[in-house]
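ok so for the tutorial part 2 we go from a plain amino acid sequence to predicted structure tokens. step 1 is just haveing the sequence, like this:
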Amino acid sequence: MATRESMDTLLQQCEDAIRYAQEQFDAGRTQEHYNDEDYSSALQSLEAAYNDITQMAHSANSQQREQLHRMRLQLQQLQNQMIILPH
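step 2 — the prediction. this is what the tokens look like for a chain of 87 residues:
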């Protein structure tokens, strides 16, 4: 079973990745392709967070898996929006 501390740490890292990616997504919509490096970095941080969630889910209980699933959906949604954006 995943510890509460490890879950909290992972969820905080995911929220940070989402916040950073959202900032880059908003900037990308207004500035088009002027911040390619930061935009790519934000996509990579979303992917890393997604992979971390997948690993954590293996040792999580059912309630923790549900939390991780909801966070995974948020990450995927933002990742998809960033990929679709003509950049």
